[in-house]
């Protein structure tokens, strides 16, 4: 299992400093949606330049203009971008087209998909092979977690790469380790920890150990 650090409510300057301190523990740096809104694709460019050995995900959460917006992320150096799963199929297909042209990948974010059992097969029919099971921060504030959706997606998906995000931290990570996700995403659980570097190290030990157990 890989660990993805979501850099959300943090400045680009602070994100680069944190990235340097935790680079040994992180497999994928996520330039989170708030950081993209704040700093644009410069954040993606800077991370790819400073951390060329790491994968970079631009959490673009695309809902329209699929090819154009996905291209912006890939041209800036992203290995992955994201598109919202409840948007129109045309937009999903345009993102997939950009991914194929750039030899990169698109994660479909499951946020607010109501019928996982029908929407996941529909998306796979379009060619989707990466899902990000995600409960957003607003939904987290009323107690929702991505646990149930992760199990559902794992059950109905043919063979997709699956990441999971939504309030995961040192106290809850054990609930996710055996549910079959390929990538565990942590944002606030590291960024808001009293000691972010120690949190990243401890989480990485659990996540990477789980990879060894699974193989
Ligand atoms: O996509 C996001 C918010 O929309 C976050 O990056 C994702 O939820 C991970 O952050 P956290 O661990 O704080 O929930």
UniProtKB/TrEMBL annotation:
It catalyses: D-ribulose 5-phosphate + formaldehyde = D-arabino-hex-3-ulose 6-phosphate. Keywords: Carbohydrate metabolism, Lyase, One-carbon metabolism. Pathway: One-carbon metabolism; formaldehyde assimilation via RuMP pathway; D-fructose 6-phosphate from D-ribulose 5-phosphate and formaldehyde: step 1/2. The keyword Glycosyltransferase does not apply. The keyword Phosphoprotein does not apply. Signal peptide: none annotated. One of its GO terms (biological process) is one-carbon metabolic process. Residues 2-203 form the Orotidine 5'-phosphate decarboxylase domain. One of its GO terms (molecular function) is orotidine-5'-phosphate decarboxylase activity. InterPro entries: 3-hexulose-6-phosphate_synth (IPR017553), Aldolase_TIM (IPR013785), HPS/KGPDC (IPR041710), OMPdeCOase_dom (IPR001754), RibuloseP-bd_barrel (IPR011060). Its EC number is 4.1.2.43. It holds the Pfam family OMPdecase. Belongs to the HPS/KGPDC family. HPS subfamily. This is 3-hexulose-6-phosphate synthase. It comes from Ligilactobacillus salitolerans.
């Amino acid at each position: 299992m890989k660990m993805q650090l979501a850099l959300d409510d943090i400045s680009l300057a602070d994100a680069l400093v944190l990235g340097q301190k935790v680079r040994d523990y992180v497999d994928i740096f996520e330039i989170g949606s708030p950081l993209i809104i704040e700093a644009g694709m410069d954040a993606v460019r800077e991370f790819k330049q400073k951390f060329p050995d790491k994968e970079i995900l631009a959490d673009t959460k695309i809902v329209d203009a699929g090819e154009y917006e996905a291209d912006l992320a890939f041209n800036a150096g992203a290995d992955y971008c994201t598109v919202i799963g409840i948007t129109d199929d045309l937009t999903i297909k345009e993102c997939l087209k950009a991914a194929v042209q750039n030899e990169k990948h698109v994660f479909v974010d499951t946020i607010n998909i109501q019928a996982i059992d029908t929407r996941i097969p529909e998306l796979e029919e379009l060619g989707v092979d990466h899902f990000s099971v995600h409960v957003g921060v607003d939904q987290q504030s009323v107690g929702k977690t991505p646990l149930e959706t992760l199990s559902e997606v794992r059950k109905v998906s043919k063979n997709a790469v699956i990441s999971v995000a939504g309030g995961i931290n040192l106290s809850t990570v054990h609930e996710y380790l055996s549910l079959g996700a390929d990538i565990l995403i942590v944002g606030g659980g590291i960024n808001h920890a009293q000691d972010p570097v120690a949190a990243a190290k401890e989480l990485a030990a659990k996540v990477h150990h789980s990879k060894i157990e699974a193989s």
